[in-house]
């Protein structure tokens, strides 16, 4: 597959190229609901690409946008692999989505708990302790979900993402924005680091990252 990705001004989609062939080689990186035809409605301006990074393994491309969302794509297939923040594209990670489709269990699945209780009720009634546990599970889930959304809300960018960096082990993603935020994300879960965001003295304009040392430099508007 291609080894070069380009983004363009006032355009939401990213394009994969082969440096060996000097030609476009691979799928167009876009969200499923974005129309690729110029004859149809274009993606919103908030989705226009402003920054880009490719993982060291060459399998993933991250595209930052005007609206502050960073989309992750698989370079070989072109398929979306979630977003930063996580809720911008889907409420489930790719692993949780896979398990949901197969009917497998994953943490916090209140629907699964309720289905189990309903099945027990059909076989001869549900014990009060089971009902109490289901209610506790539901309340715990709602509380955890509210805290998770609050953490994401604090860390999410309120403006254009101007720089993206991925560490050499695909563990951490760093994003810098025009909103003066520097945010560290977990590459796999798409959740912000507990110390994020880091507030910069002024809006960022560019982020440069050296993978060998994992050092980064940030240029700011002032």
| End-to-end Cα distance | 40 Å
Biggest sheet architecture: 4 strands, antiparallel
Secondary structure class reads alpha+beta
Principal-axes shape call: globular
The helix content is 10-25%
Estimate the strand proportion. 25-35%
Using only C-alpha atoms, the radius of gyration works out to 21 Å
Query: Residue ranges: pLDDT <50 for 5 or more in a row?
Result: 103-107
Strands of the biggest beta sheet: in what spatial order?
Answer: 4-5-6-7
Q: Order of SSEs, N→C?
A: EEEEEEEHHHEEEEEE
How many E-type strands? Answer: 13
What is the mean pLDDT?
A: 83
Annotation field: number of helices: 3
Describe the structure.
The protein is of the alpha+beta class and 222 residues long. Helix content is 22%, strand content 32%. The chain is built from 3 helices and 13 strands. A 4-stranded antiparallel beta sheet has the order 4-5-6-7, with no helix packed on it. A 4-stranded antiparallel beta sheet has the order 8-9-10-11, with no helix packed on it. Strands 1-2-3 form a 3-stranded antiparallel beta sheet, with no helix packed on it. A hairpin with a 5-residue loop joins strand 4 and strand 5. Helix 2 runs antiparallel to helix 3. The longest helix is centred in the middle third of the chain and has 28 residues. The protein is globular and about 65 Å long. About 2% of the residues have low confidence.
């Amino acid at each position: 597959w291609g080894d070069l990705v380009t983004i363009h001004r006032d355009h939401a989609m990213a394009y994969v190229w082969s440096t060996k062939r000097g030609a476009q080689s691979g799928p167009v990186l876009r969200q499923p609901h974005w129309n690729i035809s110029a004859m149809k409605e274009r993606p919103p301006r908030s989705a226009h690409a402003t920054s880009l990074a490719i993982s060291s393994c060459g399998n993933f491309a991250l595209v930052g946008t005007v609206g502050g969302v960073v989309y992750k794509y698989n370079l070989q297939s072109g398929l979306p692999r979630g977003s930063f923040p996580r809720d911008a594209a889907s409420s489930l990670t790719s692993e949780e989505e896979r398990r949901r489709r197969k009917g497998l269990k994953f943490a916090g699945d209140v629907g699964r708990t309720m289905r189990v209780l309903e099945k027990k009720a059909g076989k001869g009634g549900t014990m009060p302790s089971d009902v109490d546990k289901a209610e506790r599970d539901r309340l715990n889930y709602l509380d955890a979900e509210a805290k998770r959304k609050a953490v994401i809300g604090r860390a999410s960018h309120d403006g254009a993402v101007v720089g993206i960096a991925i560490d050499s082990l695909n563990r951490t993603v760093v994003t810098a924005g025009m909103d003066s935020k520097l945010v560290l994300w977990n590459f796999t879960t798409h959740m912000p680091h507990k110390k994020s965001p880091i507030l910069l003295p002024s809006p960022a304009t560019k982020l440069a990252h050296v993978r060998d040392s994992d050092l980064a430099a940030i240029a700011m508007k002032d």
